[in-house]
Design brief:
This protein has about 375 residues and is mainly α. It is built from 16 helices and no strands. It is found in: Cell membrane.
Length: about 375
């Protein structure tokens, strides 16, 4: 097992480099880079940085070493010297290959640079937005698994009964509802939209959160996250429940289950001592993808609807504004985390079923 883990760890490096090369190359062909964004704003063609609360290109122009001294340039046409200064400031006076190598060397040293337009380090930005994404990702994944696995087992045991039929209809209907539409429905019904004002409309905590007791803080936090977590979890039940059910049905029909029952073992012991270990392997295989997608990429619409400032909105706004340090820094970190989580899922395979031997498997 140790040799297998070492091989997987060694594969992380070329995989990560490949991801960065592909995305860096694609960016070279995307029009409207950060320099174009600033020039367009200075020429009065709009502010693409308005989505950044409390910041914008003004912060860059007025920052030390920035471009505040050129703010009186005429509205039509900019001097070539000023554009050259912009290119030097952003590093675009270097060839693409040199910029990529410099970027990767900095990332290896865990130096992810500063946002172009916020004068804040990428690490600080990510840490600032992390609580929202942790809340949505962790609670959504946890609730989905805690509900779907027991429900899937129950459906497998009672396959073809009325319980199986109506639960299947319910979860498939839930799966068909878009998350953003369900989020709007929750707001209208329970957040003061048109009916009841039971839950707050925005944020993770109340304004007086610091003044609350420990129990008050916990209850306030749970009060705020109820609707966003429900909206981000609704579509996960169907896939996990049906996957669990089908996995158990496949295992229940196998000979070793018939033998265990013939020996007089109780149904509960057969299900949870013998069938569970084998049937859950395929469910666990999907855990990294579920967690990483919800945690890092699937919360943009939910964050927008519930006014939550998390990693989803950070990534979207950085991509729109061509804030490349934020885009590539978060891409590097999240890709690395996703690859490591994939290795952890293999370790969970072995933990659940020690009969699995990855040493005999080619990577």
């Amino acid at each position: 097992m140790g040799a297998y883990i070492l091989r997987r760890l060694a594969l992380i490096i070329p995989t990560l480099i490949g991801i960065m090369i592909i995305n860096f190359t694609l960016v070279q062909f995307v029009p409207g880079g950060p320099i174009d964004q600033i020039i367009a704003r200075m020429e009065g063609q709009g502010d693409v940085f308005g989505g950044f609360a409390g910041s914008g290109s003004d912060a860059l122009l007025d920052a030390p070493g920035g471009f505040g001294g050129q703010s009186n340039v005429g509205a039509h046409g900019l001097p070539p010297e000023f554009i050259a200064q912009l290119e030097r400031q952003f590093g675009f006076d270097k060839p693409p290959l040199e910029r990529f190598l410099d970027m990767m060397w900095n990332y290896i040293r865990l130096d992810f640079g500063q946002s172009y337009f916020r004068s804040v380090s990428v690490v600080d930005l990510v840490l600032e937005k992390m609580p929202v994404s942790i809340t949505l990702g962790l609670w959504s994944t946890l609730i989905a698994y805690l509900v779907s696995i027991p429900l899937g087992i129950r459906k497998a045991v009672r396959d073809g009964t009325r319980f199986d039929t109506w639960t299947s209809g319910t979860i498939i209907a839930a799966y068909a509802i878009p998350g953003f539409l369900f989020a709007i429905l929750l707001l209208v019904l329970f957040a003061g939209g048109s009916y009841w004002r039971i839950f707050p409309l925005r944020g993770l905590t109340s304004d007086n959160w610091q003044d609350l007791t420990l129990m008050g803080k916990i209850l306030d936090y749970l009060w705020h996250i109820t609707l966003p977590v429900l909206a981000s979890t609704i579509s996960a039940f169907a896939t996990l429940t049906l996957l669990t059910k089908n996995s158990f049905l496949d295992e229940i029909k196998k000979q070793y289950v018939i033998t265990a029952r013939a020996k007089g073992l109780t149904e509960r012991r057969v299900l949870y001592r013998h069938v569970f270990r084998n049937a859950m392997l395929i469910v666990i295989a999907g855990f990294p993808a579920v967690f990483v997608s919800v945690f890092f990429g699937g919360s943009l619409i939910i964050e927008t609807i519930f006014s939550l400032d998390g990693l989803g909105r950070l990534g979207f706004e950085a991509a729109v504004a061509r804030d490349y340090p934020v885009v590539f820094g978060t891409l590097f970190v999240f890709s690395l985390i996703g690859l490591v989580v994939g290795i952890l899922s293999d370790l969970m395979y072995v933990w659940i079923d020690p009969r699995i031997d990855f040493e005999t498997r080619e990577t």
